[in-house]
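Consider the tokenized backbone below.
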């Protein structure tokens, strides 16, 4: 522990953006960390569906639709006036970004075996 009583992990999780956002929404820094947690939960839950969806409808439509939805929810995250809206939008940002993260390996493999 350092002299301020914080552990290394707590110091790493304390960022300037988190501090500014918690001030803007009037919530604690711990509550603001929920936004990041929901993003990661969305990435994890979206990866379950992205692979099978890309195999059934194709990779290009999956990329295009998920990227469009991702951009809409990123815009929603930026423009929402409430903390609850930010948390919900961050979940969907993670959900739709997981398609790009989850199926890019299959796209590379498909293109390299031709």
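A designed sequence for it:
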């Amino acid at each position: 522990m350092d002299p301020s009583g914080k552990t290394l992990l707590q110091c790493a999780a304390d960022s300037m953006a988190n501090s500014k956002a918690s001030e803007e929404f009037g919530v604690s820094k711990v509550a603001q960390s929920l936004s990041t947690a929901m993003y990661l939960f969305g990435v994890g839950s979206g990866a379950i569906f992205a692979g099978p969806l890309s195999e059934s409808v194709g990779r290009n439509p999956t990329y295009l639709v998920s990227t469009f939805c991702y951009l809409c929810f990123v815009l929603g995250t930026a423009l929402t006036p409430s903390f609850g809206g930010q948390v919900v939008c961050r979940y969907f940002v993670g959900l739709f970004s997981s398609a790009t993260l989850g199926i890019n390996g299959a796209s590379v493999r498909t293109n390299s075996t031709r």
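The mean pLDDT is 81.
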